[in-house]
Every structure is written in C-alpha cells, then in structure tokens.
Amino acid sequence: MNLALLRTGLVWLRPLLFFLATLAGAVTVVVVLVSTSPGTAFDALPSVPEALKQELTARYGLDQAWYVQAGRRLWALAHLEFDVSLSYRSGGRVAALLWPAFQSTLLTVSLALTLSFTLAAGAVAFARRGPRRAGLVSVGLTLVSGVPAFVAAVIVQALLAAHLDLVPDVRHVVAAALVLAVADGHLLDLFRQLGAEWAEARSTDHVVAARANGLGARRELLRTLFAPVAQLVTTRFTLLLGAVLVVEIPFGLYGIGEVLYQAASRRDTHLVVGCLVFLSALVCGAGLVRDFARLAVDPRLRRAGAPRLE
Q1: What does the alpha-carbon distance between residue 145 and residue 191 come to, in Å, rounded to a whole number?
Q2: CA distance 55 to 49
Q3: Which residues, 6 or more positions from 243, have their beta carbon under 8 angstroms from its beta carbon?
C-alpha cells in the first residue's frame, strides 16, 4: 500500500519538478541576457548630473560585472524578492507595479482564449452538418482571419462604442480579446486543428467499439479528446500571451506588454526582468496545469508514468 502511494506521488511530482526546472532555466536566460545588455536606465536621463548618475549606478550595483549582477538578481529571485524600478514610477517595488498589470493581461488572454475556443467549437459543430456548411464556414473564417490585427482593432472598437453601453476599460478589454481571438489567422488555425482532432478521436478503435455496442460513445469521445484539447489550450494560451503584448499598447490597457514596452524604452533592467519572469511563470504554469489535468483524467498516463519501485 505504501509502495503504491509512493509511486502515485512520484507521478504527480514529476510535472512539478519539470515546471520548476523549466522556470529556473527561463529565468536564468532572461537574467543573463538583460545583465549583459549595454547601458543603464540613468543613461536615458540627460538632465540628471553626471555625479548623481554615478552615485545611483553604484547604489544599484549597475557598475559591477554582468555575472555579478546576474548572480545577485538570481539570488534575489530565488527568495521571491524583486528590485525597485529604476525609472518607471521610480522607487516603486517591481512586484507591486507588475501585479495589476499581470491581472489585466491574464484577464485579457483568458477571455480571448474562451472566445476563440467557443467560436471554433461552434464552427466545427456547424461544419459537420454537411459539405456546404463546411465550405461556408471555411470561407467565412478565412475572410475574417485574414484581417490584420490593427484593422480588426479599429473595427471592433467602433462597433463596441456604437452599440454597447460599457465603461471604456471594459470595452477595451473586450475589444482586445476579440481581436486576439479572431484576427491574424488564429481562429482559422484553431478551427482546423479542432476539426482534425475531432475526426481522429471519432475514428479511434475504442470510440468506434463503444459506438457500435451502445456503451456511452460520447463519454469515450470526450475522454479521448481531452489530452489533445489540453495541448491546444496550452499552445493557444502561449500564442495569445505573446500577441497580447502588442495589442495592449493601442488599446491603452495597463498590462505587462505596456509596462514591458515602457521599461525597455527607459532601459529599466529591473522592471524588464520582472516582466519577463512573470511571463515565464505564466507560460510554465500553463504547462503544469495541462499536465496535472491530463494525469487527473487519464489513468493510462498515471500508469505509464509510474516508476517501478519493486
């Protein structure tokens, strides 16, 4: 009994260790790249006296070798400590500045992810009713997805402003989520991938056998679809997270993308590192949730991943 519990614990521990190792590697690469970049935040302040620049540079350790700076930042991050911002709201703690931006970005990406999967699943269900409808859906999604993101942003903003009585912040979030979900081919790609996964799942042996024997084919189909759909959710989340960094700026959303742009333009390396660490944690965390969800649903993965301890 204890041996079985140990094997089960190791199965669940493996994704967590992989998450920690991946996050540590990503953070290390980010810190090293930022530490080796030339210039400091004080170089972009021409009105500040040179003596004051040197004093601030020495105070924050920016005059040290890059490997010393990288080591100091990694040690601080290992203790979940962030530096202060060098220019963006100067003197503010990086974590306090990024927390509201992190919430805004996560809200926008989650809403866009929900919209994209809802629209794509509806399109797949509609297309399954006949070849004419499938062709109509394919042509319609091709036309809609071919619209560039910045053009779609203008159209969506105009429609929401004219027909929806929403406060500006909510309107901008909804508009940004719609643009992320539909524009630049995102919805068309997701429609094709969901359709292919649906067709492949319906043709698997156990689903065909369950359908032939009347043994709950829908349940088997959903269980078969869960693993590839979870992979699609993680992949789409990562893609949308990268795209939202560009969309936040024209929509005026206070998200990580806007903060990262401001920090990079001002050479605020402390804030740049904080932004990239938050983004790395989001991406790695999405993979961890996917792995845990697949283990919880599919017992075959738990048996396959369990090490032999006899």
Answers
A1: 11
A2: 10
A3: 149, 180, 184, 186
Map residue 214 onto helix, strand or coil: coil
Residue corresponding to tokens 């401001």: 262
Report the distance separating Cα 112 and Cα 236, nearest Å: 10
3-state secondary structure of 93: strand
139-179 pLDDT, tens digit per residue, is 887 877 777 766 776 676 667 666 555 555 677 788 888 88
pTM: 0.77
Chain centroid, CA 273 distance in Å? 17
At 206, list the tokens. Answer: 């156990």
Q: Which residues contact 125 (CB under 8 A, 6 or more apart)?
A: none
Question: What is the C-alpha radius of gyration for the chain, rounded to an integer number of angstroms?
Answer: 24
| pLDDT tens for each residue of 199-237 | 777 777 766 676 666 666 667 777 777 778 888 888 888
And the tokens for 221? 């189909």
Q: Does domain 2-305 have CATH number 1.10.3720.10?
A: yes
